[in-house]
Amino acid sequence: MKIRRNDLCPCGSGLKYKKCCLGKNGKANEDLEARYLKAHGIRLKKQKDIEGIRRAGKIILEIFDRMDSLLKPGLKTEAINTLVHEMTIARGATPAPLNYRGFPKSVCVSINEVICHGIPGERVLKDGDIVNVDLTPILDGYYADASRTYFAGSPGKDAEKIVSVARESLKRGMAAACPGNTVGDMGWAIQQYAEGEGCSVVREFVGHGVGFDFHEPPQVPHHGRKGQGVTLIPGMVFTIEPMINLGKKELRILDDNWTAVTLDGSLSAQFEQTILITEGGHESLTPFDL
Ligand code: MF3
Ligand code: CO
Ligand code: CO
Q: Ligand 1 pocket, 136 CB below 6 A?
């Protein structure tokens, strides 16, 4: 879906698109910036902010590349934490998870029935495990946030299925990420697809604005209805990070107060990227291959 210059602006200002969100430095654009901040708490990103977030995103891509060869059966999850921590620091960045609301490590590592927020430690990867690695470096004050689910060794049928549905769920969400669409349009696209595959969408954790801080407005649910919620406009940066369960959507939190697992013990997988809304659609600031 492409907005033409003379169409009404999707932000609801009543102005033509070219006089509003499309305009780079016009007054209408300043009004819009103020309106999104006041009404939604959303801080739009400018060119220099976008470049900063993209540089933080590059660190994620480099670490993901190393994970490809590292994640083998027999590896302790603590070793993933060590590599992430060292690679992050070596690039002049800081791992945002470390000490975030008491989180004790530099990366979330979530295996099999763990939905998210797994704490690396003594657990050892086994053949056929699915392993989500979720990275958020802070570079020069800018945050980028992305995750992907890997296989340790050879996956079984169920593992193949849930990882494939989670990957495609993120793709469907991204396909709906363009100016004029709403947050609900993205959630709807994900939910329709994932439930159509017989899987379920986790509700308790959502995507989020990101860039100046770890978690900013708006919230980005991975379920929803068309047309619901905030209208997407150029300069918005947020994550899409659907957590998809092979069984039911319900979860419980372990005694460590972090680890979220499926209530029914079924497999769960996730892919996450940091997305910038542009005039023509979107751009990933953490563009690993999906
Ligand atoms: N990276 C997660 C997200 O996608 C948040 C992890 S919070 C932590 O939003 F404390 F567990 F690191
Ligand atoms: Co996130
Ligand atoms: Co994340």
A: yes
